[in-house]
Amino acid sequence: MSLRTRILLLVGGFVAMTLVVMLFGVSTIADYNGMMADYDRASENAYRGERLNYLISSAVMESRGIYNSHTRDDVDLYAGRLDRDLDRIDAEIVQWKRAGIATRSADLAAVEAKTAAFIQVRRQLSQTARTQSAAAAEEIGRNTRQARITFQADIERVVADTRNDMLQTKARADTYRRERAITFVAITLLWIGVTAGLGIWLVSHFITRDLSRSREAEAAREKLLKELMESNTELERFAYVASHDMQEPVRMVNIYSQMVVEDYDDKLDERGRKYLRTIATSAGRMQMMIQDLLNYSRLRNDPGDLVPVDLNHRMKHVRASFARLVEDSGASIENDDLPAVMANPVQIQRLIENLISNGIKYQPPGQAAVIRVSAIDAGDRWTITIADNGIGIDAAYAGAVFEPFRRLHSWEEYSGTGLGLSICRKIVEHHGGRLWFESVPGGGTHFHFTLAKPPAVIAEAPTTAA
User: Fold this and answer.
1) CA nearest to 74, candidates 61, 63, 65
2) 3-state helix, strand, coil in the chain (%, to 5)
3) Domain 307-465 of CATH type 3.10.20.90
4) Cβ atoms 127, 136 nearer than 8 A
5) pTM
6) Domain at 208-298: CATH architecture
7) 462 pLDDT band (50/70/90 cuts)?
8) Sign of the C-alpha dihedral, residues 173, 175, 181, 183?
9) CA neighbor of 242 nearest in space, from 234, 230, 232, 252
10) Which residues does residue 31 pair with via DSSP β-bridges, in sequence order?
11) Are 218 and 16 in contact (CB under 8 A)?
12) How far apart are CA 198 and CA 214, in angstroms?
């Protein structure tokens, strides 16, 4: 058999076995991703149930505020809060139903019916408190207390069932991955055996010691790279699951500390109330940090589908989001005529909101924030600038401010988790851009970031210049 025939056989066998391995790997990844998608849906369902229970507990606390009111103003205050909570509960059950992710449709129907009954009773309680008295409202709450407790127990059962489904799905996915890994090893060994057998025919012709060493080094580098990528993926998933599951105990600490203050206020001295306030404040800080960590871990290496995004339209959404904050702080948000960019709409709005929120927050006492958003043409990209008149950032911290959990001020001075700018940098880098700032302490800060132009704009640029 000629050398040429041997090479052709080797290449043909290598290509055939490679295709088999690739197809097997692709099918494994697709099946595993499907299982993990089921896991994520169950996780979202559990979160919806927990949030519904939280809102119900909040409504119960506002009802107790009505019971303990001594003036008409107090009654109106707590009744208004109760109505807002009931509106949120109504919106939450609609979102839960619209998502269609309930563990069991019968469970969702039962929860939906009991939610409607709970809302009806509490609205009647609120109306009674306004038109009659707090005592009459308390009588309604006392008569429906057992039904409410049973209702919340039903929600907790649905959440528990969902978490059991999550564990079973995860167990199935892990078993599937192990079994497929064993099969993959067997196919790989077969592939190695075939290619090795064919390679023996050619080893005396073109394999040298230096080439062998080079291949071994390359294989070692590829193996290391693969291990690093797998490790990074596992760490991201761990951060997501850990931060998601940590929310429940922190939320419970916050809720029950508030309930202790509400129910046992007359039995506590000032030191006890101070301790409970400290617990509630710390739980709130932890909840903010967990939420930011969850958002940080959700960002992937790929920003998703990039589409033309009109930044003027995005700014309208930003103003709507900050309407209450602007009214309370007296801040001013202005922008020039902004261009369209290639971006993920959700992530780019989060980027703009984070930077504007920092500009409003980091202000000297008594000074209203003035924020201005502008854009400069930078060839195939736009340079977007968000400028504020805040306290500024020392140039010595130019790199540190973008590190996760790196804070330059104490919590008492300025609240925050230290993840906002890290999320901003990650979003910009995933879009292929760059984020930096120019600042003078006490003289405000100018944040700059670059984003790609839509293809049509790039194609028209030479014509415009001519």
Assistant:
1) 65
2) 75, 10, 20
3) no
4) no
5) 0.41
6) Orthogonal Bundle (1.10)
7) very low
8) negative
9) 234
10) none
11) no
12) 20
> Given the DSSP bridges, would you call strands 435-439 and 445-452 parallel, antiparallel or unpaired?
antiparallel
Position 121 pLDDT exceeds 90 = no
Sheet holding 445-452, edge to edge: 332-335, 370-377, 381-388, 445-452, 435-439
- Tell the residue number behind the tokens 């028209």, with chain if given: 460
Backbone phi, psi, residue 178, to 5°: -65, -45
What is the overall mean pLDDT for the chain? 76
386-443: pLDDT as tens digits:
999 988 887 776 766 777 656 555 555 555 556 778 888 888 988 889 998 888 888 8
Q: Which of 294, 41, 31 is nearest to 174 (CA)?
A: 31
Q: CA dist 428 to 267, 325, 366, 412, 425, Å?
A: 53, 25, 32, 30, 5
Where are the strands (E) in 291-431, listed by range?
Answer: 307-310, 332-335, 340-343, 370-377, 381-388
Q: Do the beta carbons of residue 351 and residue 406 sit within 8 Å?
A: no
Question: C-alpha angle with apex 307: 44 to 94, nearest 5 degrees?
Answer: 30
Q: What is the mean pLDDT of residues 450-466?
A: 61
Q: pLDDT tens for residues 57-76? A: 888 888 888 888 888 888 88
CA–CA gap between residue 7 and residue 4 (Å, rounded): 5
DSSP state of 445: E
**Calpha distance 402→249 (Å, rounded):** 29
Which has the closest alpha carbon to 133: 72, 60, 85, 73?
72
Strands (E), 134-219: none
Helix axes 311-321, 345-361, angle to 10 degrees: 50
Backbone angles phi, psi at 331, to 5 degrees: -70, 160
**C-beta of residue 107 within 8 angstroms of C-beta of residue 153:** no
| Among candidate residues 334, 4, 76, 42, the one with its CA nearest the CA of residue 170 | 42
Amino acid at 80: G
Q: Which residues face 332 on adjacent strands?
A: 370
Does residue 389 contact residue 369 with C-beta atoms inside 8 Å? yes
398: amino acid identity, one letter:
A
Cross-strand partners of 310: 340
